[in-house]
Design goal:
This protein has about 350 residues and is mostly beta strands. The protein has one helix at about 1-15, and strands at about 25-30, 35-40, 45-50, 55-60, 65-70, 75-85, 90-95, 105-110, 115-120, 125-130, 135-140, 145-150, 155-160, 165-170, 175-180, 185-190, 200-205, 210-215, 220-225, 230-235, 240-245, 250-255, 260-265, 290-295, 300-305, 310-315, 320-325, 330-340.
Protein backbone atom coordinates (compact mmCIF):
# COMPACT_ATOMS: atom_id res chain seq x y z
CA UNK A 1 0.00 0.00 0.00
CA UNK A 2 2.79 2.43 0.94
CA UNK A 3 4.78 1.58 -2.22
CA UNK A 4 1.68 2.11 -4.36
CA UNK A 5 1.04 5.52 -2.79
CA UNK A 6 4.68 6.45 -3.37
CA UNK A 7 4.46 5.51 -7.06
CA UNK A 8 1.33 7.65 -7.46
CA UNK A 9 3.07 10.58 -5.77
CA UNK A 10 6.08 10.30 -8.07
CA UNK A 11 3.76 10.16 -11.10
CA UNK A 12 1.97 13.29 -9.95
CA UNK A 13 5.29 15.07 -9.59
CA UNK A 14 6.36 14.06 -13.10
CA UNK A 15 3.06 15.33 -14.49
CA UNK A 16 3.59 18.77 -12.98
CA UNK A 17 5.98 20.31 -15.50
CA UNK A 18 6.99 23.97 -15.35
CA UNK A 19 4.43 26.30 -13.78
CA UNK A 20 2.81 28.23 -16.63
CA UNK A 21 -0.13 29.77 -14.74
CA UNK A 22 -0.68 31.43 -11.38
CA UNK A 23 -0.13 28.74 -8.78
CA UNK A 24 -0.91 28.49 -5.08
CA UNK A 25 1.54 26.31 -3.15
CA UNK A 26 -0.10 24.73 -0.12
CA UNK A 27 1.72 22.87 2.68
CA UNK A 28 -0.21 19.84 3.97
CA UNK A 29 1.04 19.31 7.52
CA UNK A 30 -0.36 15.83 8.11
CA UNK A 31 0.62 14.47 4.67
CA UNK A 32 4.26 15.63 4.45
CA UNK A 33 3.48 17.16 1.05
CA UNK A 34 2.77 20.34 -0.84
CA UNK A 35 0.07 20.83 -3.45
CA UNK A 36 0.66 22.93 -6.56
CA UNK A 37 -2.78 24.38 -7.23
CA UNK A 38 -3.57 25.85 -10.66
CA UNK A 39 -5.65 28.91 -9.78
CA UNK A 40 -7.37 29.02 -13.17
CA UNK A 41 -8.99 25.64 -12.56
CA UNK A 42 -8.82 25.51 -8.77
CA UNK A 43 -7.35 22.02 -9.06
CA UNK A 44 -4.07 20.63 -7.76
CA UNK A 45 -1.74 19.97 -10.72
CA UNK A 46 0.68 17.98 -8.62
CA UNK A 47 1.53 16.81 -5.13
CA UNK A 48 5.19 16.84 -4.10
CA UNK A 49 6.86 15.31 -1.04
CA UNK A 50 8.53 17.44 1.64
CA UNK A 51 10.13 16.72 4.99
CA UNK A 52 8.04 15.77 8.00
CA UNK A 53 5.11 18.09 8.86
CA UNK A 54 5.72 21.09 6.59
CA UNK A 55 4.33 24.29 8.09
CA UNK A 56 5.26 27.30 5.95
CA UNK A 57 6.06 28.08 2.31
CA UNK A 58 7.88 31.05 0.77
CA UNK A 59 8.50 31.81 -2.91
CA UNK A 60 11.45 33.87 -4.16
CA UNK A 61 10.77 37.23 -5.79
CA UNK A 62 11.66 35.86 -9.23
CA UNK A 63 9.29 32.92 -8.78
CA UNK A 64 12.00 30.33 -9.38
CA UNK A 65 12.33 28.77 -5.93
CA UNK A 66 9.94 27.69 -3.20
CA UNK A 67 11.22 26.89 0.27
CA UNK A 68 9.26 24.81 2.77
CA UNK A 69 9.99 24.63 6.51
CA UNK A 70 9.84 21.05 7.78
CA UNK A 71 8.70 21.68 11.34
CA UNK A 72 8.08 18.08 12.44
CA UNK A 73 6.17 17.17 15.60
CA UNK A 74 6.81 16.39 19.28
CA UNK A 75 7.98 12.86 18.60
CA UNK A 76 10.00 13.78 15.52
CA UNK A 77 11.12 17.44 15.49
CA UNK A 78 12.16 18.68 12.08
CA UNK A 79 15.45 20.42 11.26
CA UNK A 80 15.43 20.93 7.51
CA UNK A 81 14.17 23.03 4.62
CA UNK A 82 12.91 21.63 1.31
CA UNK A 83 13.87 23.71 -1.73
CA UNK A 84 11.73 23.27 -4.87
CA UNK A 85 12.89 24.38 -8.33
CA UNK A 86 9.66 25.82 -9.73
CA UNK A 87 11.05 26.13 -13.26
CA UNK A 88 11.47 22.36 -13.41
CA UNK A 89 8.85 21.49 -10.77
CA UNK A 90 11.33 19.25 -8.96
CA UNK A 91 13.27 19.00 -5.71
CA UNK A 92 16.37 21.20 -5.87
CA UNK A 93 17.86 20.29 -2.50
CA UNK A 94 17.20 19.66 1.18
CA UNK A 95 18.98 21.98 3.60
CA UNK A 96 20.01 20.43 6.91
CA UNK A 97 19.81 23.01 9.71
CA UNK A 98 21.72 20.85 12.18
CA UNK A 99 20.93 21.72 15.80
CA UNK A 100 18.38 24.35 14.77
CA UNK A 101 15.20 22.34 15.14
CA UNK A 102 11.56 23.18 14.43
CA UNK A 103 12.08 25.64 11.57
CA UNK A 104 8.92 27.62 10.93
CA UNK A 105 8.62 31.22 9.72
CA UNK A 106 10.18 32.20 6.37
CA UNK A 107 10.94 35.60 4.87
CA UNK A 108 12.88 36.37 1.68
CA UNK A 109 15.51 39.10 1.63
CA UNK A 110 15.99 41.26 -1.50
CA UNK A 111 19.41 39.66 -2.11
CA UNK A 112 17.90 36.17 -2.48
CA UNK A 113 18.72 34.91 0.99
CA UNK A 114 16.04 33.70 3.38
CA UNK A 115 15.25 34.48 7.03
CA UNK A 116 14.13 31.38 8.94
CA UNK A 117 12.86 31.09 12.52
CA UNK A 118 13.75 27.98 14.53
CA UNK A 119 11.63 27.38 17.60
CA UNK A 120 13.79 24.56 18.96
CA UNK A 121 16.96 26.67 19.16
CA UNK A 122 15.26 30.08 19.54
CA UNK A 123 17.11 31.57 16.59
CA UNK A 124 16.61 33.56 13.45
CA UNK A 125 18.78 32.11 10.70
CA UNK A 126 19.74 33.68 7.40
CA UNK A 127 20.09 30.93 4.81
CA UNK A 128 21.39 30.89 1.25
CA UNK A 129 18.87 28.56 -0.48
CA UNK A 130 21.01 28.25 -3.61
CA UNK A 131 24.13 27.12 -1.78
CA UNK A 132 22.22 25.35 0.98
CA UNK A 133 24.24 27.09 3.70
CA UNK A 134 23.49 29.02 6.91
CA UNK A 135 24.97 32.53 6.63
CA UNK A 136 23.90 34.01 9.99
CA UNK A 137 22.68 32.62 13.32
CA UNK A 138 21.00 35.18 15.58
CA UNK A 139 19.61 34.15 18.97
CA UNK A 140 16.20 35.61 19.81
CA UNK A 141 16.42 34.53 23.48
CA UNK A 142 12.62 34.29 23.44
CA UNK A 143 10.12 31.44 23.69
CA UNK A 144 8.57 29.90 20.56
CA UNK A 145 10.02 32.18 17.87
CA UNK A 146 7.39 31.39 15.27
CA UNK A 147 6.72 33.74 12.32
CA UNK A 148 8.96 36.36 10.68
CA UNK A 149 8.45 39.35 8.39
CA UNK A 150 11.24 41.25 6.62
CA UNK A 151 11.13 44.94 5.66
CA UNK A 152 11.09 45.57 1.88
CA UNK A 153 14.64 46.97 1.96
CA UNK A 154 15.90 43.86 3.75
CA UNK A 155 17.22 45.89 6.66
CA UNK A 156 15.19 44.49 9.53
CA UNK A 157 13.36 41.31 10.50
CA UNK A 158 10.47 41.14 12.94
CA UNK A 159 10.10 37.78 14.72
CA UNK A 160 6.88 36.99 16.59
CA UNK A 161 7.44 34.93 19.76
CA UNK A 162 4.31 33.09 20.89
CA UNK A 163 5.56 31.99 24.31
CA UNK A 164 7.04 35.35 25.29
CA UNK A 165 4.32 37.56 23.83
CA UNK A 166 6.97 39.66 22.12
CA UNK A 167 8.41 40.65 18.77
CA UNK A 168 12.18 40.43 18.37
CA UNK A 169 13.69 43.00 16.02
CA UNK A 170 16.85 42.00 14.17
CA UNK A 171 19.20 44.21 12.15
CA UNK A 172 19.88 42.00 9.13
CA UNK A 173 22.76 44.13 7.87
CA UNK A 174 24.80 43.66 11.04
CA UNK A 175 23.30 40.34 12.12
CA UNK A 176 22.50 41.80 15.52
CA UNK A 177 19.40 41.60 17.69
CA UNK A 178 18.13 45.10 18.46
CA UNK A 179 15.35 44.63 21.00
CA UNK A 180 12.24 42.74 22.10
CA UNK A 181 8.88 44.54 21.98
CA UNK A 182 6.11 43.32 24.30
CA UNK A 183 3.01 43.21 22.11
CA UNK A 184 0.59 40.79 23.77
CA UNK A 185 0.06 37.19 24.83
CA UNK A 186 0.56 34.72 22.01
CA UNK A 187 2.22 37.04 19.50
CA UNK A 188 2.22 34.97 16.29
CA UNK A 189 1.14 36.38 12.92
CA UNK A 190 3.21 39.28 11.60
CA UNK A 191 3.16 41.27 8.37
CA UNK A 192 4.82 44.47 7.18
CA UNK A 193 3.07 47.11 5.10
CA UNK A 194 4.33 47.49 1.49
CA UNK A 195 5.87 50.89 2.31
CA UNK A 196 7.87 49.22 5.09
CA UNK A 197 6.71 51.66 7.76
CA UNK A 198 4.53 49.42 9.94
CA UNK A 199 4.57 45.87 11.27
CA UNK A 200 1.17 44.39 12.16
CA UNK A 201 1.23 41.64 14.78
CA UNK A 202 -1.59 39.28 15.76
CA UNK A 203 -1.60 38.48 19.49
CA UNK A 204 -3.74 35.37 19.47
CA UNK A 205 -4.25 34.92 23.23
CA UNK A 206 -4.82 38.62 23.86
CA UNK A 207 -7.27 38.97 20.95
CA UNK A 208 -5.44 42.10 19.79
CA UNK A 209 -3.38 43.45 16.92
CA UNK A 210 -0.29 45.55 17.60
CA UNK A 211 0.89 48.12 15.06
CA UNK A 212 4.62 48.81 15.34
CA UNK A 213 6.59 51.66 13.75
CA UNK A 214 9.42 49.77 12.02
CA UNK A 215 11.83 52.68 12.40
CA UNK A 216 11.27 53.92 15.96
CA UNK A 217 10.06 50.49 17.17
CA UNK A 218 7.24 52.12 19.12
CA UNK A 219 3.79 50.54 19.35
CA UNK A 220 1.48 52.92 17.51
CA UNK A 221 -1.80 51.18 18.26
CA UNK A 222 -3.36 48.21 20.04
CA UNK A 223 -6.48 47.16 18.14
CA UNK A 224 -9.07 44.71 19.49
CA UNK A 225 -9.49 41.60 17.35
CA UNK A 226 -11.64 38.93 19.04
CA UNK A 227 -11.46 35.35 17.77
CA UNK A 228 -7.79 34.29 18.20
CA UNK A 229 -6.00 36.33 15.48
CA UNK A 230 -3.35 33.96 14.16
CA UNK A 231 -2.17 35.28 10.76
CA UNK A 232 -2.00 38.73 9.18
CA UNK A 233 -1.63 39.70 5.51
CA UNK A 234 -1.57 43.18 3.98
CA UNK A 235 -3.04 43.92 0.56
CA UNK A 236 -0.46 45.04 -2.05
CA UNK A 237 -1.80 48.61 -2.04
CA UNK A 238 -1.32 48.78 1.73
CA UNK A 239 -4.94 49.76 2.33
CA UNK A 240 -6.28 46.67 4.08
CA UNK A 241 -5.04 44.11 6.60
CA UNK A 242 -6.63 40.66 6.52
CA UNK A 243 -6.59 38.50 9.63
CA UNK A 244 -7.51 34.84 10.11
CA UNK A 245 -9.28 34.22 13.44
CA UNK A 246 -8.84 30.57 14.36
CA UNK A 247 -11.25 30.27 17.28
CA UNK A 248 -14.20 32.07 15.73
CA UNK A 249 -13.58 30.61 12.27
CA UNK A 250 -13.61 34.06 10.66
CA UNK A 251 -11.69 36.28 8.28
CA UNK A 252 -11.43 39.88 9.48
CA UNK A 253 -10.57 42.99 7.46
CA UNK A 254 -9.02 46.17 8.89
CA UNK A 255 -8.44 49.62 7.44
CA UNK A 256 -4.66 50.13 7.72
CA UNK A 257 -4.67 53.93 7.70
CA UNK A 258 -7.49 54.25 10.23
CA UNK A 259 -6.46 51.12 12.19
CA UNK A 260 -10.00 49.91 12.67
CA UNK A 261 -12.03 46.83 11.85
CA UNK A 262 -14.13 47.11 8.71
CA UNK A 263 -15.84 43.74 8.44
CA UNK A 264 -15.60 40.06 9.29
CA UNK A 265 -17.13 36.91 7.86
CA UNK A 266 -17.46 33.39 9.22
CA UNK A 267 -16.27 30.43 7.17
CA UNK A 268 -19.16 28.00 7.63
CA UNK A 269 -17.32 24.77 6.91
CA UNK A 270 -17.57 21.42 8.64
CA UNK A 271 -14.48 19.99 10.27
CA UNK A 272 -13.28 16.58 9.11
CA UNK A 273 -13.72 13.49 11.33
CA UNK A 274 -9.99 13.36 12.16
CA UNK A 275 -9.79 17.02 13.26
CA UNK A 276 -9.48 16.17 16.96
CA UNK A 277 -6.24 14.26 16.26
CA UNK A 278 -4.51 17.25 14.71
CA UNK A 279 -2.36 20.11 15.95
CA UNK A 280 -5.24 22.21 17.28
CA UNK A 281 -7.29 19.15 18.29
CA UNK A 282 -10.76 20.11 19.48
CA UNK A 283 -9.68 23.40 21.09
CA UNK A 284 -11.99 25.49 18.92
CA UNK A 285 -15.06 23.29 18.68
CA UNK A 286 -16.64 23.34 15.24
CA UNK A 287 -14.38 26.06 13.83
CA UNK A 288 -12.61 24.98 10.62
CA UNK A 289 -9.59 26.80 12.14
CA UNK A 290 -8.51 29.24 9.43
CA UNK A 291 -4.76 29.82 9.67
CA UNK A 292 -2.64 30.28 6.52
CA UNK A 293 -3.53 33.45 4.61
CA UNK A 294 -2.37 34.76 1.22
CA UNK A 295 -3.55 37.78 -0.79
CA UNK A 296 -3.47 37.89 -4.60
CA UNK A 297 -1.03 40.17 -6.42
CA UNK A 298 -3.88 42.49 -7.46
CA UNK A 299 -5.41 42.47 -3.97
CA UNK A 300 -8.80 41.33 -5.24
CA UNK A 301 -8.77 37.82 -3.76
CA UNK A 302 -7.42 35.99 -0.75
CA UNK A 303 -6.92 32.35 0.11
CA UNK A 304 -7.39 31.01 3.63
CA UNK A 305 -6.27 27.54 4.70
CA UNK A 306 -8.95 25.89 6.86
CA UNK A 307 -6.71 23.42 8.63
CA UNK A 308 -9.49 21.38 10.27
CA UNK A 309 -11.53 21.09 7.08
CA UNK A 310 -8.80 20.11 4.57
CA UNK A 311 -9.73 22.93 2.20
CA UNK A 312 -8.43 26.31 1.11
CA UNK A 313 -11.19 28.91 0.86
CA UNK A 314 -11.09 31.63 -1.82
CA UNK A 315 -12.72 34.95 -0.91
CA UNK A 316 -13.15 38.36 -2.50
CA UNK A 317 -11.33 40.88 -0.36
CA UNK A 318 -13.94 43.57 -1.12
CA UNK A 319 -16.77 41.80 0.73
CA UNK A 320 -15.29 38.47 1.92
CA UNK A 321 -17.73 36.53 -0.25
CA UNK A 322 -16.59 32.92 -0.74
CA UNK A 323 -15.85 32.34 -4.43
CA UNK A 324 -14.31 28.88 -4.31
CA UNK A 325 -13.13 25.90 -2.29
CA UNK A 326 -9.89 24.09 -3.11
CA UNK A 327 -9.49 20.51 -1.89
CA UNK A 328 -5.99 19.87 -0.59
CA UNK A 329 -4.19 17.26 1.47
CA UNK A 330 -4.64 16.84 5.21
CA UNK A 331 -4.29 19.91 7.43
CA UNK A 332 -3.33 22.65 4.94
CA UNK A 333 -1.58 25.59 6.56
CA UNK A 334 1.29 27.63 5.10
CA UNK A 335 0.84 28.89 1.55
CA UNK A 336 2.60 31.01 -1.07
CA UNK A 337 1.59 32.43 -4.42
CA UNK A 338 3.52 32.07 -7.68
CA UNK A 339 2.39 34.70 -10.17
CA UNK A 340 3.21 34.15 -13.84
CA UNK A 341 1.55 37.33 -15.12
Amino acid sequence: MIESAARILVLLVLMAGPLAADTLIVANKSDDTIDLVDLESGESRATMPTGHAPHEVAVSADGRLAVISNYGDREQPGSSLTVIDLERAELARTIDLGSHSRPHGLGWLPDGRLAVTTEGSAHLLVVDPGAGTIELEIATEQEISHMVAVTPDGGRAFVANIGSGTVTVVDLRTGRKLTDIATGDGAEGVAITPNGREAWVGNRSSDTLSVIDTETLEILEQIPCPGFPIRVAITPDGARALVSAARSGEVVVFDVAERRELTRAKLDLSTVPTAAERLFGDRFGESPVPVGLVVSSDGASAWIAATQADVVVTVRTADLAVTGLIRTGQEPDGMALVSRR
